[in-house]
Specification:
This protein is α+β, with helices and mostly antiparallel strands. Helix content is 39%, strand content 9%. The strands form three sheets. It has a five-stranded antiparallel beta sheet, with helices on both faces. Strands 6-9 form a two-stranded antiparallel sheet. β1 and β2 form a beta hairpin. α8 packs across α10. The longest helix has 21 residues. The N terminus is likely disordered.
Length: 517
């Protein structure tokens, strides 16, 4: 037959009880697809089916996908959505705090649907269903890359509620054009920014902040505690009071009173210590540190927004660190704080030697204030500080020896004892190979562990570069070879003395086998 029986099914003829004119219209519509002559010779079997239909039904299991799981069906997905939709009323994008009355409005759900897309709402429903958070309230802060919402959780049914923060990264309008400098060189973005897949980039960006927060929180630096991450939704600890009011930003902090100047100076010293601990302990540079990304409460600073923070070995980490020093220094100077120079702070943060915990950090910073050169008056000191900062901010900072512009000139400066003037001096090796003494050199020669390369006495002696006796049995001396073979023979003879005779060994094996039976 000419018809392909594996892909087509002929129309089933009508039963005798049904009128024939019901199928006439359908058969006439299929005349252009199926030819009546192809099925004229098909005989009906005992079960009322044609041979073509019987063959197709016999081969049908071979064409089905046996590996498709039965759980991933549209029906089960619909059931899951129906179950999670019961939590829709718990996402309220209002600003109601604890103790205030709530007015239910039908527009609440419509507002949440406009602000949060369907994927984000499903993630929030899952978190509510699992007990990570119980309710989600209004926005704490909004930015160009993410929105932070307040949330309430009940870890203990009979206990008080716990305030938490939910950070939702924007997936539709977030542009990574200005984030290229943070991505290039980051090991988590080895393939670069995928401009065609913004959701994937936002997911990696959220994972980056989650990992950075864990590292900073583990080091004991005040910051939000990372709790859970799901795609582009991050749940953190809430920095605020029990009623749901967040701590103010450092820019908006109301610091007044008689000791305001002293408090600003303490906060400045505290921030310098935090920056050093982030660099030395966490191996991170914030890369966007300013008065907008620092919260203040009860004489204490909290670091937030670390999604753009980079590793200390990032190609542009020192440039970001210098930018952080500039931003924070300019803010505290506007508050009337006597700040240190940018170069001094940079050396203090990047120096591998020194304390990284309190109170050693405060003592080290106070010593930096004491070590400053005295000036004639305040105006001269301010002018000198401004010039020094401008020179440092425009200075090129290499991070590897390959990036050094004139390595011969810098090496000469180090040899003349002026290495402290190099901006990258803290990146050099802290130990150098010193010239060995005469006794050390003789002991090294006797032990055959190597010779000093900078020894003047042996500089003209080329005998130490001569090739020694090659190793291997082929280059062995005859007498040495004879002695080695004799020693091997004696060792084998001693081993044969302790060897069990063969007949005794067979007898022992046979006895043991009979006992096992």
């Amino acid at each position: 037959m000419a018809t392909d029986t594996s892909t087509t099914i002929p129309p089933v003829p009508p039963q005798a009880s049904e009128p024939a004119d019901v199928y006439e219209g359908e058969d006439s519509d299929l005349d252009s697809v199926f030819n009546d002559d192809d099925y004229a010779s098909d005989d009906l079997g005992a079960d009322g089916e044609t041979d073509v239909a019987r063959n197709y039904n016999r081969q049908r299991p071979l064409h089905s996908n046996q590996q498709k799981p039965a759980a991933n069906t549209s029906a089960s997905v619909d059931d899951q959505i129906a179950i999670l939709s019961k939590h829709a009323a718990k996402i309220r994008l209002d600003n109601v705090k604890e103790g205030q009355d709530r007015e239910k409005d039908k527009a609440d759900r419509a507002t949440s649907e406009q602000v949060l897309d369907q994927r984000t709402r499903m993630i929030l429903y899952q978190m509510i269903n699992r007990g990570v958070v119980s309710e989600i309230h209004g926005a704490i802060s909004t930015g160009k890359e993410a929105n932070v919402y307040g949330a309430v959780a009940y870890p203990d049914i009979n206990g008080p509620p716990v305030q938490r923060a939910v950070k939702v990264y924007k997936t539709a309008i977030l542009s990574f054009k200005d984030r290229e400098r943070y991505i290039t060189g980051e090991h988590r973005f080895k393939s670069g920014a995928e401009k065609g897949n913004s959701r994937k980039m936002v997911k990696l960006w959220a994972e980056k902040e989650f990992r950075n927060l864990r590292r900073i929180h583990a080091a004991g630096i005040p910051c939000p505690e990372p709790i859970q991450l799901k795609l582009h939704v991050l749940v953190m600890g809430f920095l605020g009071d029990r009623k749901g009011y967040a701590y103010p930003r450092l820019r908006d902090a109301n610091i007044g009173g008689e000791d305001a100047d002293q408090l600003w100076r303490q906060l400045y010293i505290q921030l310098l210590g935090v920056m050093r601990r982030m660099y030395q302990v966490c191996k991170l540079v914030h890369a966007d540190l300013s008065e907008y990304n620092i919260l203040y409460n009860d004489r204490k600073l909290y670091i937030i927004d670390v999604s753009q923070s980079v590793e200390h070995d990032h190609p542009r980490s020192l440039e970001f660190l210098r930018m952080d020093i500039k931003n924070t220094g300019d803010f505290f100077r506007r508050q009337g704080v006597d700040i240190l120079s940018d170069r001094t702070i940079f050396d203090f943060i990047t120096s591998p030697e020194g304390a990284v915990e309190e109170p050693g950090l405060t003592e080290a910073i106070e010593k930096l204030y004491e070590s400053r050169l005295p000036s004639a008056n305040d105006e001269t000191a301010a002018a000198e500080l401004e010039v020094d900062n401008e020179v440092f901010r425009n200075q090129y900072i290499p991070q590897t020896l390959e990036q050094v512009y004139d390595i011969e000139k810098d090496a000469q400066a180090i040899g003349e004892g002026e290495g402290d003037k190099l901006v990258y001096r803290n990146l050099l090796a802290d130990q150098v190979v010193s010239k060995p003494d005469a006794e050390d050199a003789s002991s090294e020669d006797e032990s055959d562990e190597g010779a000093a390369l900078d020894s003047d006495a042996e500089s003209g002696d080329e005998s130490k570069f001569a090739k020694g006796t090659p190793r291997g049995k082929r280059f062995e001396d005859k007498d040495e070879k004879k002695q080695r073979k004799q020693a091997v023979k004696e060792a084998k003879a001693e081993k044969r003395k302790e060897k069990m005779p063969k007949h005794l060994k067979k007898r022992l094996v046979a006895t043991t086998s009979r006992k096992n039976r």
